Amino acid sequence: MATASETTLVNTHNESGTKWWTRFLDPSERTLAVLLLMPAALLLTLIIVYPVCRLIWTSFQNLSLTSGVPAAFAGLENYSLMLEDPVFWETTWNTILITLITVPGALFVGLALALMANLPFNVKWPVRLSLLIPWALPLSFAGLIFAWFFHSEYGVVNDVLRRIGIEGVIWFNSANWAFAAICLTIIWKTSSFMALIILAGLQTIPRSLYEAADVDGAGRLRQFFEITLPLLKPAIVVALIFRTITALQTFDIPFTMTRGGPGTSTATLAMYIHQNTVDFLDLGYGSALAVVMFVLSMGVTAVYLRMIRAKG
Amino acid sequence: MTLNKTMTLLLAGAAVTLSASVATAQTNLRVFVSSQHRPDVWRKAFDMYEAKNANVKVTIETGGNTSEQQSQYLNTVMTAKDSSLDIMILDVIRPAQYAAAGWTVPFNDVLGSDAANSMKRYLPAYAEANTVDGKVVALPAFADAMFLYYRKDLLEKHGIQPPQTWDELAVAAKKVTEAEKDANLQGLSFQGKAIEGAVCTFLLPYWSMGKQLVSDGKLSFDKDAAVKSLKLWKDFVDQGVAKKNIAEVATDDTRKEFQAGNVLFAVNWSYAWGQFQGAESAVKDKVGVVKLPAVQGGQPASCLGGWEWGVSAYSNNKTEAQKFVQYLSSPDVSEFMAINAALLPQFPEVYTDADVTKAVPWFANAKPVVETAKARPVTPRYNEVSEIIRTTVNGVLAGQSTPEEGAAQMEGRLRRVLR
């Protein structure tokens, strides 16, 4: 009896194929795709999807470590608080302003640097190296160094101005000058990244196009606008995406240069998030602010991606 | 080659077993000490404990130059529930906040049923700052307060007595700086940068007018007094008594500039004294220190400082750590730190100890200042209160807003935090 039933069992298995795991030994194309994607998908879920979901969940909670009360669901309270919070609006506006100033600024300076680096020098490495150094320098170092440069008494900027007969300003004593100092520093720091990407783009443009243009009698300027710029567009868009997102997340340089001062006039949204979560331990409100920044970054990325797709 | 490798492996294995067997018998305590408070001298106090308790090994960790930087670091460690730190030194404004977050272990168990009584040994302000809802959440490490430092030589030269009021200070500063004709000499240096020190800057004249920021846990903001306080400091800048970029000046900048001989009067904590008397100081033996001036018709007020030892709730050695903290917060260690690091004692009787008065004679005069110094508001949301006050002071001194606008902003924002 036993033998008979066992035979039927084996038979049924054979009918439905084999044991369930044996399909992995000789997988179909579909199974193989799933199998190969699984590790990456798991990793992404763990390090991106989970934290983002957790962040959004926290933003709907009343979770402040200093309150002494356990976390509780608060609905949209954190978001409605945000709308009435003048510092939120000020820091968001500062962030947008920094983006609007430093992204085009870095693009123009970076383009100029890339064009210079692409000139036919005999020895190329000094130029390339000097392009790399600002990019390789940690952001907070750049901030600290420039904070000294712009110091009203001990700084090199005011010293140079004094030597050429201009009375320097107390940079960090005025919102506008402090803002200008921060933007200059960010442009200095980030234009080399732009230059590196644009330089890579420049080197893919075939020389033959310029030679042909020379034959046709096109001048340097014409060549730049008719050949260089259109062919650089993909490289520029990629550089712009990265630069805009990092600009929206600006933290290190204003944090180390002014700590948001004078008052809160140079604080950015990222600094305000850090302040609420790390200093004030208000994780609920801090998460809600972070969600806003996340949405802002996603929005900008979507716009750029659409631009690329339209072009492609 | 192979023989060498085998030997190395064997040795390494032996080392691991050895250290493992030692670790079972020994408690390792990791202590966070603020780098501005002489960790080198604390190390000696720790060594004395290790000598008596062979099973305890203490490691020091330092970091950050200011109270804010240190709190940012400790906040990160604590939110991560990291067990690597056992003991941490906390600025007097933080024990309440750390207790509310559940980051420190109360000392009531080790102090016994008489915890409240054992806190009476300390100066009252410290017993209060470390007790939250009847729980002793930290033990005092040392005391501190703000003082007025002045150039004894310059005041004597011009026949001026140390000022009793801020108005007298302005007159004296103008007289001396005009007569000295030294472009580098500032009349008064205080903290205008948006740091913790700027909170005290605001509160000194405010308290001197007899006003409180918080009473019975409720905001008791007096807008007129706030305007007057902000205006007092802004006037010092406008009249040239303080330098134009005072909004860039942090606590240690005041100390450095005074030490270089460029400042007549300076508002600073007690730690500056030891540095002014150091070998590198340009003002050695030329410095006087008195209580801070009052506003016209007010009482002099100082800002209470001081640091406290807390035991981490995530420590794996809580009992050993608490025992060690009890040693650190004892009159003997207090005396040792007073003599060797010029840290003000948290026990009243140590100020008059013969060895202490010999090493730091001015401590005898410092005692009444510390005793009457006022504590910044004790609230778990102190960091927010502090941020509001210091950015406003900074903004007003930088000329971003008028004292009236500043006081109005401050009131509006404080109301949201201290409802």
Short descriptors:
heterodimer; A: 312 residues; mainly alpha; 13 helices; 2 strands; disordered N terminus; B: 419 residues; alpha/beta; D-Maltodextrin-Binding Protein, domain 2; five-stranded mixed β-sheet; four-stranded mixed β-sheet
Helix content of chain A: over 70%
The most extensive interface between chains reads: A-B, 24 and 30 residues
Q: Termini distance of chain A? A: 70 Å
Radius of gyration of chain B: 24 Å
The CATH topology label of the largest domain in chain B is: D-Maltodextrin-Binding Protein, domain 2
Class from secondary-structure proportions of chain B:
alpha/beta
Helix and strand arrangement:
The complex is a heterodimer of chains A (312) and B (419).
Chain A: H1 2-15, H2 29-59, E1 61-62, E2 72-73, H3 77-83, H4 86-117, H5 125-136, H6 139-149, H7 156-163, H8 175-202, H9 207-215, H10 220-248, H11 252-257, H12 269-279, H13 283-311
Antiparallel strand pairs in A: 1-2
Chain B: H1 2-25, E1 27-32, H2 39-52, E2 56-61, H3 67-79, E3 87-91, H4 95-100, H5 108-111, H6 115-118, H7 124-129, E4 131-132, E5 135-136, E6 139-142, E7 146-151, H8 152-157, H9 166-180, E8 186-189, H10 196-208, E9 214-215, E10 218-219, H11 223-238, H12 251-259, E11 263-269, H13 271-276, E12 287-290, E13 307-311, H14 318-328, H15 331-341, H16 354-359, H17 363-372, H18 382-397, H19 403-417
Parallel strand pairs in B: 1-2, 1-3, 8-11
Antiparallel strand pairs in B: 3-13, 4-5, 6-13, 7-11, 7-12, 9-10
Care to describe what's here?
The complex is a heterodimer of chains A (312) and B (419). With 312 residues, chain A is an all-alpha fold. Helix content of chain A is 73%, strand content 1%. Chain A has a two-stranded antiparallel ribbon. In chain A, α6 packs across α8. The longest helix of chain A has 32 residues, at 86-117. Chain A is flat. Chain B has 2 domains: 25-144 and 305-372, Periplasmic binding protein-like II (D-Maltodextrin-Binding Protein, domain 2); 146-303 and 378-417, D-Maltodextrin-Binding Protein, domain 2. A 5-stranded mixed sheet of chain B has the order 2-1-3-13-6. Chain B has 19 helices and 13 strands. The A-B interface holds A 65-68, 151-153, 170, 172-175, 259-265, 275, 278-281 and B 68, 71-72, 75-76, 79, 97, 100-102, 193-194, 244-245, 247-248, 380-381, 383-384, 387, 391-392, 394-395, 397-401.
